[in-house]
Write a structure and sequence with these properties.
The protein is built from no helices and 15 strands. With 188 residues, the chain is mainly beta. A hairpin with a 4-residue loop joins β12 and β13.
């Protein structure tokens, strides 16, 4: 039987300033003006920040969109966009086998533009089984992930063009970055 890791002492505390918005469900799941508050979401460990996330700071920290089932899979639409900044400082909580990009990293994710960003998860909608990165298609974009590795200030930017699918790369050129594990390919 596998032994579960013990909880960190002191515990990690995740703080959401608030949650507001409208959620509807009919044939699609719709979310309108969803906000996680007027402040950055944070997590602390022993009073030290280990995680922070800010979503759409230039758009009143609100996000709208929907999730719809299609014949080809599940379509996620984000209106007008998703801009997220995520900072990780997890070195004290992770063991040496954890991927380097999880230790101390700043991620800046940008997806969508006017009027919307759309991504299709190409999977049977009844089971949503995902076994390949190629099942993610950027229908309307753009999409980019910019990373800064805090230990040495190295940077990497990855992007996917419209109508292209995500491709998991066999060779990983730089262990410091999540984005170097993926590229884009023509959708099959």
């Amino acid at each position: 039987m596998k032994t579960c890791p013990s909880e960190p002492d002191p515990p990690v505390v995740l703080t959401f300033p608030s949650l507001s918005g409208t959620f509807r469900y009919s044939d699609i799941i719709e979310f309108v003006d969803v906000s996680l508050g007027d402040e950055t979401i944070t997590a602390t460990h022993a009073d030290d920040a280990v995680f922070s996330m800010d979503i759409n700071p230039d758009d009143e920290r609100k996000l709208s969109g929907n999730i719809a089932y299609t014949d080809d899979g599940v379509m996620l639409t984000v209106e007008p966009k998703l801009d997220a900044s995520i900072a990780l400082q997890l070195s004290e909580l992770l063991d040496e086998d954890a991927p380097e990009y999880l230790h101390d990293q700043l991620f800046e994710l940008s997806f969508g533009a006017q009027p919307a960003g759309k991504v299709l998860l190409r999977a049977d909608p009844t089971c949503l089984e995902v076994d390949s990165a190629g099942q993610f298609e950027l229908v309307e974009g753009p999409f980019s992930l910019h990373e800064t590795h805090r230990a040495d200030s190295a940077e990497n930017t990855s992007s996917i063009d419209e109508s292209m699918c995500l491709n998991q790369l066999e060779d990983n050129p730089d262990e410091r970055f999540l984005g170097t594990r993926f590229g884009q390919q023509v959708c099959e």
